[in-house]
Amino acid sequence: GENVEQHPSTLSVQEGDSAVIKCTYSDSASNYFPWYKQELGKRPQLIIDIRSNVGEKKDQRIAVTLNKTAKHFSLHITETQPEDSAVYFCAASSNNDMRFGAGTRLTVKP
Amino acid sequence: DAGITQSPRHKVTETGTPVTLRCHQTENHRYMYWYRQDPGHGLRLIHYSYGVKDTDKGEVSDGYSVSRSKTEDFLLTLESATSSQTSVYFCATQRDRDEKLFFGSGTQLSVL
Question: How far apart (Å, rounded) are the C-alpha atoms in residues A14 and A11?
Fold first, then answer.
C-alpha cells in the first residue's frame, strides 16, 4: 500500500516568515494529494488539495507544489500568522485508499 | 462541515469488552472511512466503505470490524478491546473518489 512520509515533525517560525512542509509518497498510482489542518482538539479540515495533472496550486497565502517524477509534494505558507499554528497533515490517495503523513506541528511566534 | 455525527464522543471501557462506535451522515456521501489518530502516527486507516454492505480493510484493521447496512450509518466494532486500541477515532465521508474528506468530531476511546 501507499506510504507517506512528512517532514519536519515540528516547525517554529516567526510571524510573517514563510513555512514549508514536505511529503513524499511511494505509490506512483496516487493521483490526489490533499493537505489538512488540525487545531488542538478539533477535527482535521482541508485547506488545499492538488491532483496529479497539476504541478502547482495557490490559494491566497497557501500554495502546494507536486513533483510526480520525484514523488514529492510540498505545502508553502507565506506571511504566517499566529492563527496558522496547528498540526498539518499531507495525504496521498490511490484507489480510494487515502494515507496520511505523521503530521507537522507548526508554531508561529508573534 | 458535512453533517457527520459520531457517537459516543468519549468512552472508557475495560480490556476484553466489545465496543461499537457509530458514524452517522446526512450528506448521502457514498464513501465512509474510519481512522485512528495517535501521536507520531498521524491518521491511520482502519476500514472504509464504498457503498452499502461494501467494505474493505485499511492498514490497521486487525481487531476491528465494520458494518454499513444503510448509506448514512457506518459502525466500527472492537470485538475485544485492548489497551493498544486507546486512541481518538475519526469517521470521515467522501462524496466521490479522490475528493476531500469531511471528518466527524472524533471519539476519544480509553481502554483500561
Answer: 10
Rounded CA gap, A49 and A59, in Å? 10
User: Measuring CA to CA, which residue among B40, B35, B23 is closest to residue B74?
Assistant: B23
A73 and A50 in contact (C-beta within 8 Å)?
yes
- Whether chain A has a CB inside 8 Å of the CB on B2: the answer is no
pLDDT of B14 > 70? The answer is yes
**With an 8 Å Cβ cutoff, is A7 touching chain B?**
no
Using pLDDT thresholds of 50, 70 and 90, give the confidence band for residue B51: very high
- Average pLDDT estimate for A65-82: 96
Q: How far is CA A38 from CA A63, A87, B106, in A?
A: 17, 5, 12
Pairing of strands B107-111, A10-14: unpaired
